Amino acid sequence: MLLQAFGAVSGLGVGTQAQFQKAVDCSSGITTFTKSTAIPVDLPCASLIKEDLSFNLDANSLSMFDRTAHLSWLAANEALQQSGLNELNDLGLDRSGIFWGTGFGGSNTLDSAYQEIFLNGKQRARPFTIIGVMANGSAGLLAIQTGFKGPSMGDLLNGMRLIKPMPLERLLEVLNMVFAIGQLLAAEQNLFLMLAQLKRGRL
User: Fold this and answer.
1) Pairing mode, if any, of strands 9-10 and 45-47?
2) CA gap 148, 106 in Å, rounded
3) Going by C-beta distance under 8 Å and a sequence separation of 6 or more, which residues neighbour residue 141?
4) Mean pLDDT of all residues in the chain?
5) Nearest-angstrom CA–CA distance, 141 and 149
6) Among the four 31, 100, 130, 192, which has the fewest Cβ within 10 Å?
7) Measured between alpha carbons, how far is 6 from 29 in angstroms, rounded to an integer?
8) pLDDT of 166 over the 80 cut
9) Which residues have a Cβ under 8 Å from the Cβ of 38 and sit 6 or more positions away?
10) Where are the beta strands (DSSP E) in the chain?
11) Can you tell me whether residue 130 is helix, strand or coil?
12) Are 103 and 159 in contact (CB under 8 A)?
């Protein structure tokens, strides 16, 4: 048996129906980019999500995970509703897993940490930075929300092949930043696992 369902959110709108209708209307999601950035960028246009989004997530999930993970849940939840997999029994949850592909992962969180440390002179990044930055954050959030207990993983490498290599100086800056926030890793990973277990009722 094959179940196929879709979920989508992009500059075209929220939901698969919105994507399809914009495609039928030959309407583009590309628009003028006027948002101010910490470091000026030459970006005249971009695909922006303009709708006010309701993620239906608790405050902890909204603060810990990157916006990429929030959007992931928005799209995945739509697909779950279509497929009927949102009402699985315990055996079904045990046999269900998640495979998630991403080109970067928590880029918003990484950029914010970079700005706080290197531009604003802060001595440390905000709590939960590692959870927000990690590439499999979306897969983790989906596992928590769905209760799927099978394998949960993310594929970063295939997406990274589309990203141009960065200059050595920039790479060293990023590595220095990762080192600066790396001290949070162990404690936050333990907290992440505890929250996941609490969500599943194991604690």
Assistant:
1) unpaired
2) 22
3) 61, 65, 69, 70, 72, 73
4) 79
5) 12
6) 31
7) 19
8) no
9) 115, 119
10) 9-10, 13-14, 30-32, 45-47, 98-101, 152-155
11) helix
12) yes
Residue with tokens 């802060």: 122
Residue 105 amino acid letter: G
* pLDDT > 70 fraction of the chain, expressed in percent and rounded: 74
Whole-angstrom distance, CA of residue 27 vs CA of residue 23: 6
Q: Which band of pLDDT confidence, cut at 50, 70 and 90, is reported for residue 173?
A: low
CA 107 to chain centre: 8
Evaluate whether 128 touches 190 at the Cβ level (below 8 Å): no
The values of phi and psi at residue 10, to 5°, are -160, -170
Q: Residue 55 pLDDT > 50, yes or no?
A: yes
Residue 24 CA, chain-centre distance (Å), reads: 28
